[in-house]
Amino acid sequence: MTTTVPFVTNGASNGISNGNGQPRLSAEVSSRIRERLQAAGVSFLANDNIAEHIEPGELRALEVEVADKVRDLLRTLVIDIDNDHNTHETAERVARMYLHEVFKGRYHHQPKVASFPNVKKLDEIYTVGPITVRSACSHHLVPIMGNCWIGIKPGVRVIGLSKFTRVADWVFSRPHIQEEAVMILADEIEKLCEPQGLGIIIKAQHYCMKWRGVKEPQTSMVNSVVRGDFRHDPSLKQEFFELVRQQEALLST
Ligand SMILES: [Zn+2]
């Protein structure tokens, strides 16, 4: 059964009634989406995508609600947003940035990626990279910036090189911890082209270490995942890491 709920254009948090005896529904769109996810038993952690549980029009309403809450946050930080021309529309900007840019991988569907049969039975490994990593840490919501390399030993299906970049961007555009980001990206690539072997390396700098905390500007984190033939065949895994080293060397020339 589909229930139609009215739009909410501000942060009012009282329940609403449709007046004909049906249960009261949460007025805030975030509450309605959360209740829907909970009823479906679906996880909505920071690095989960919830796009298929957001109904048409709700994302726009969510943008308004997030802006209201950011405005409250700025006021709570004792910033005079009514008189400060610099922060006057910051709440709206931050809401748009979170929902449609830096965390779009939570709220928007995966970009369409066509896969094709591997008719020539290609089975030589290749690597794609560097692909820019733009993410944010789940702990502080500050940037994680770096590079990623993907190695593939093709299976029954293949996808275009540029598609790896699009899928990676969609996966990274969520609050993450790097160790989980690499696993989620590997899962998505496996779903798309079912490679015989898959390797991913991420090298990234965490602004929660550069900008705050220990304030260590040069430290980066490197992690990797290898699956399928890359995991079972040490020489293939070695070849992948060697190809990435060569790509990195090219960058510095
Ligand atoms: Zn952090």
From TrEMBL:
InterPro entries: GTP-CH-I_C/QueF (IPR043133), GTP-CH-I_N (IPR043134), GTP_CycHdrlase_I (IPR001474), GTP_CycHdrlase_I_dom (IPR020602). It is an enzyme of class 3 (hydrolase). Pathway: Cofactor biosynthesis; 7,8-dihydroneopterin triphosphate biosynthesis; 7,8-dihydroneopterin triphosphate from GTP: step 1/1. One of its GO terms (biological process) is one-carbon metabolic process. Residues 1-23 are annotated as: Disordered. Pfam families: GTP_cyclohydroI. SUPFAM superfamilies: Tetrahydrobiopterin biosynthesis enzymes-like. Residues 68-244 form the GTP cyclohydrolase I domain. The keyword Oxidoreductase does not apply. Keywords: Hydrolase, One-carbon metabolism. It catalyses: GTP + H2O = 7,8-dihydroneopterin 3'-triphosphate + formate + H(+). Residues 10-21 have a biased composition (Low complexity). It comes from the Bacteria. The keyword Hydrolase applies. PANTHER family: GTP CYCLOHYDROLASE 1 (PTHR11109:SF7), GTP CYCLOHYDROLASE I (PTHR11109). This is GTP cyclohydrolase I. The lineage of its organism: Bacteria, Bacillati, Cyanobacteriota, Cyanophyceae, Synechococcales. The gene is folE.
